[in-house]
Amino acid sequence: MPPPLRLDPERSERLAAGAALLRGLTEPGGLSASTRMRWCLRHPFPKDQEESPATSDMAPGCALVLVLMLMTAALSRTGAVPVPSASRAFPPARGCHMAQFKSLSPQELQAFKTARDAFEDSLLQKDWDCSGRLFPRTRDLKHLQVWERPVALEAELALTLMVLEAMANSSLGHSLEQPLLTLQHIHSKLQACVPAQPTAGPRPRGRLHHWLHRLQEAQKKESQDCLEASVMFNLFRLLTRDLKCVASGDQCV
Question: Is the whole-model pTM more than 0.70?
Answer without folding.
Answer: no
